[in-house]
From TrEMBL:
<dbReference type="InterPro" id="IPR007203">
    <property type="entry name" value="ORMDL"/>
</dbReference>
<dbReference type="GO" id="GO:2000303">
    <property type="term" value="P:regulation of ceramide biosynthetic process"/>
</dbReference>
<dbReference type="Pfam" id="PF04061">
    <property type="entry name" value="ORMDL"/>
</dbReference>
<feature type="transmembrane region" description="Helical">
    <location>
        <begin position="28"/>
        <end position="54"/>
    </location>
</feature>
<keyword id="KW-0812">Transmembrane</keyword>
<feature type="transmembrane region" description="Helical">
    <location>
        <begin position="106"/>
        <end position="124"/>
    </location>
</feature>
<protein>
    <submittedName>
        <fullName>Ormdl</fullName>
    </submittedName>
</protein>
<keyword id="KW-0472">Membrane</keyword>
<dbReference type="GO" id="GO:0005789">
    <property type="term" value="C:endoplasmic reticulum membrane"/>
</dbReference>
<feature type="transmembrane region" description="Helical">
    <location>
        <begin position="130"/>
        <end position="149"/>
    </location>
</feature>
<keyword id="KW-1133">Transmembrane helix</keyword>
<comment type="similarity">
    <text>Belongs to the ORM family.</text>
</comment>
Length: 159
């Protein structure tokens, strides 16, 4: 449960809107549309096959979401949480840190579906499969596991 405080002149009552913005109406569909737009942009590049386009979509998606959810810390605005979110990644702030919410399950399922699409459209090519599987596990699944909550491996990204 998030601490609520009365804030005169603000549009929300949450000290850190990073906790709840992913509950906004239409955000899941917008996220999927962005993935599809990126895929169609990659697919429009000459000499790129459909399988390679899906592999690149998978790689780019996993890298960008890793940076967005698991590398960047703090908030893109000045939160009113007295600096509590300053050292937390976006994933750690999402849904006020509660594990296995609908949003967090969605953010686990989407990269898996993109991986399956990339595997299928690359016709189960071994090189594509290994690249996509490594990207999926290292960048999209492992950082989301509860055992890595607030953990900085080897002190990387600690501050």
């Amino acid at each position: 449960q998030s601490k609520q405080a009365m804030q005169v002149g603000t549009a929300h009552s949450d000290p850190n809107p990073n906790h709840i913005y992913f509950n906004s109406r239409g955000i899941w569909m917008t996220y999927i549309i962005f993935i599809l737009i990126a895929h169609f942009i990659i697919l429009s590049i000459p000499f790129i096959s459909v399988g390679l386009a899906w592999t690149l979509t998978c790689q780019v998606h996993n890298f960008i979401t890793y940076l967005w959810l698991h590398w960047e810390k703090g908030a893109p605005f000045e939160p009113l949480d007295q600096g509590e979110s300053r050292t937390l990644t976006h994933w750690e702030q999402l849904d006020d840190g509660v594990q296995f919410t609908a949003n967090k399950k969605f953010l686990l399922v989407v990269p898996t579906v993109v991986f399956l699409l990339a595997t299928f459209y690359s016709r189960y090519d071994q090189i594509h499969f290994i690249a996509n599987a490594l990207s999926l596990v290292v960048l999209s699944i492992a950082p989301k596991l509860p055992m890595f909550y607030r953990v900085r491996l080897f002190g990387i990204n600690k501050w």
